[in-house]
Amino acid sequence: MRAVPATGHGGGRASLEPDIAVLDQDPPAGGTDVLRINDLRVEFRFPRYSVEVLAGIDLSVGSGEIVGIVGESGSGKSVTALSIVGLLQRPGFVTGGRIDFAGTDLLEVGADEMRAIRGNRISMIFQNPRASLNPVFSVGKVLREVLRVHSGLRGGAATARAVELLADVGLFDPNAVLRRYPHQLSGGMAQRVMIALALASSPQLLLADEPTTALDVTIQYQIIQLLSRLRQERNLAQIVITHNLGVIAELCDRVAVMYAGTILEEAPVERIFDAPRHPYTQGLLAARARTELTGRLESIPGQVPDMRNRPPGCPFSPRCPHAGDVCRTANPAMEAVEPRHRVACHRWTELA
């Protein structure tokens, strides 16, 4: 058994959650790529100006692999997920790149084909589970409707499958849960219901946007266990978006560190914790809360830049304690530190 430090938000706004102790396990390595994103670019267009909020994202997810995306609020994590499932709404527009899902470019398919993929082959869990459920419909009505649309099940067959799904996500007395409304669910129960909805069509890829936010540590641990079990049992590829580096450490195989619409570092999760190369990653790790309070909590000075005035050069340079002249003028290319570890920093070799 090992203890992993619970963490809070980047920028030093860390919570004082206790360490989370979990059993060691060897997660399967990612297999053939289920999803591959190349040079994804997104703009928000307003009447008087446009803002590039994703500036060339490259990311892949293999079958049975869990990839974490971590970064401060405003880094572009949720915009990336919404772009994948075709739910990016105005003023957001995808302006370039490719999102290859099982051989299909999701940016090239029509609306009807995208609807067939979304929910059937790709599912998403949103940030606020209770707000994602319709308050006037019971859990059973919502689940049965999803099963009717995506699996063609009706009547008793749909109810039986709904009970099975709720039991699969660890809900006690699923028949009773079917009769409940969203306001009658705890945060943990609502999150499990959302996961059951996402699994109703046996997807190949699950996107989880802040799946443990606003849950207490015990429930966080249970949700982490559940997502890990789903990967083991279903070979389910997952992208997990979170501020919490403790969740990343326990759940993910690989992590991408996002900042200002770009990925600054990507590596297996052990490398990120043991040998981070980008100053921003190092700052996030230093800012996490620990159970032993030996002094003042660390923080990253400054704030995420206003994307209307994106700084020239490296986007992190205004906050970076190691920034030099080249950092403020030239945008760093992504370089290989080792076979599965990449970093976008002009000075990473010196800092190493």
Q: Percent of residues in beta strands?
A: 15-25%
Tally of alpha and pi helices: 13
Q: Which consecutive residue ranges, at least 5 long each, have pLDDT under 50?
A: 1-30
Q: Major sheet: size, sense and barrel closure?
A: 8 strands, mixed
The side-by-side strand order for the widest beta sheet comes to 8-9-10-5-11-12-14-13
The shape is globular
Helix content: 25-40%
Number of β-strand runs: 14
Mean pLDDT value: 87
Radius of gyration, in angstroms, nearest whole number: 21 Å
Plain-language structure description:
The protein has 352 residues and is of the alpha/beta class. The protein is 32% helix and 24% strand. It contains 13 helices and 14 strands. An eight-stranded mixed β-sheet has the order 8-9-10-5-11-12-14-13, with helices on both faces. β13 and β14 form a beta hairpin. The longest helix is centred in the middle third of the chain and has 18 residues. The chain is globular and about 70 Å long.
Compact summary:
The chain has 13 helices and 14 strands. With 352 residues, it is α/β, with parallel strands linked by helices.
Question: How are the secondary structure elements laid out?
Answer:
Layout: E1 2-4, E2 20-22, E3 33-45, E4 50-62, E5 66-70, H1 77-84, E6 92-101, E7 104-105, H2 111-117, E8 122-125, H3 129-132, H4 139-151, H5 155-168, H6 174-178, H7 187-199, E9 205-209, H8 217-234, E10 237-242, H9 245-251, E11 254-259, E12 262-268, H10 269-274, H11 279-286, H12 325-329, E13 335-338, E14 341-343, H13 348-351
Parallel strand pairs: 5-10, 5-11, 8-9, 9-10
Antiparallel strand pairs: 1-2, 3-4, 3-6, 6-7, 11-12, 12-14, 13-14
